[in-house]
């Protein structure tokens, strides 16, 4: 029988059971570290940039030599050569001198700013400056990006494209990261067949195997799909036991309710060194989720209904995968859109309701986003495919009126 807990209670029980479990640390090329979780602190071994450089095409000058310059009375500075890309300047800039410089060129000693080429011209052996510049204008100084010893990437940071770039700038060719958690996925059900098979009457192709594998990949894990098992306890139990040595997390799709043929709870409860921690969450969709452990390894029993399975993974399995990779279990920022509900919507109350919505704007061009519920049960994946995101109706709310502001979390 289901013992129904709140979403928050379930999340806390799961996190408390993990004991800060982490996957092993591995060293990979920094160029391929996108999307991986850093397992070490990266500090800048040098100043970035290591030399002052121009951000504009123009002339390197002493800013004091340009004060008072205008189109009618330009500052005339002696032209002292040109800076070439990738080379040091051909000398030191003295008062009353200017040096031609390209974007990215090294600022010569003695200068402290760059005049844009648009506000200057060459008159014989002189540069005419038609607009004054302030000290350090149009240039990047030594260490403006990072000072030596600065923390560039903290441990536990999910590596982004810009992080890969700064690793290259600092000369880091390798990076220590947490290895991808290995997630083994089982589908169950006498009516389930492989996607490549042609269903007979009463059969359906497996949806959850591939969609859960995709969610695992999105969450930084390494999925392994081990096929479909009939609604028989012994066969499934044997397969799960054989997978324990290979997995950091196990997902069983289907058989999580309380019917006679729903065997997942029996299998999980019979696993050595653990058993079922809870069965049931006060949410819709996703109520009949099961969580247990075996030898310190988490095992989930998820609903066979695809929408229920996807939401259960999002709320309960993803935090585990993040924790295993040294990340906070819940992202500090989740992309969302503030919108207005475009219809009255009721909710049964007593459980959190996760409502899928599509977003649109009125054709009159007003900058108002409207959210339209995508109606359908937990067995209809179209509510996720057609939806742009979801919002949550709290347990103690029985409905939301048309025009109410809501926060839509984007898929």
List strands and helices in order, with pairings.
Layout: H1 7-18, E1 25-29, E2 42-43, E3 53-54, E4 58-61, E5 75-82, E6 97-101, E7 113-116, E8 120-123, E9 126-129, E10 139-140, E11 151-153, H2 161-169, E12 174-178, E13 182-188, E14 192-193, E15 204-205, H3 208-218, E16 222-229, H4 233-243, E17 249-253, H5 264-269, E18 274-279, E19 283-284, E20 290-294, E21 297-302, H6 306-324, E22 336-341, E23 345-346, E24 352-361, E25 369-373, H7 382-385, E26 389-393, E27 399-400, E28 405-410
Parallel strand pairs: 5-6, 13-16, 13-17, 14-15, 17-21, 19-24, 22-25
Antiparallel strand pairs: 1-12, 2-11, 3-10, 4-6, 4-7, 5-9, 8-9, 18-20, 20-21, 22-28, 23-27, 24-25, 24-26, 26-28
The tally of strands reads 28
Instruction: Output mean pLDDT.
Output: 94
Number of domains: 4
Low-confidence spans: none
What share of residues is helical? 10-25%
* Derived structural class: alpha/beta
Order of the strands making up the biggest sheet: 7-4-6-5-9-8
- Largest β sheet strand count, sense and barrel closure: 6 strands, mixed
Cα Rg: 31 Å
Give me the CATH superfamily of the largest domain.
Answer: MoaB/Mog-like domain
Q: What is the 3D form?
A: elongated
Q: CATH topology of the largest domain, what is it called?
A: Molybdenum Cofactor Biosythetic Enzyme, Chain A
CATH class group of the largest domain: Alpha Beta
The end-to-end span amounts to 32 Å
Percent of sequence in beta strands: 25-35%
Describe the overall structure.
Helix content is 18%, strand content 31%. It is α/β, with parallel strands linked by helices and 411 residues long. The chain has a six-stranded mixed sheet with strand order 7-4-6-5-9-8, with no helix packed on it. Strands 16-13-17-21-20-18 form a six-stranded mixed sheet, sandwiched between helices. β24 and β25 form a beta hairpin. α1 packs parallel to α6 and α3 runs parallel beside α6. It is elongated and about 90 Å long. The relative contact order is 0.13.
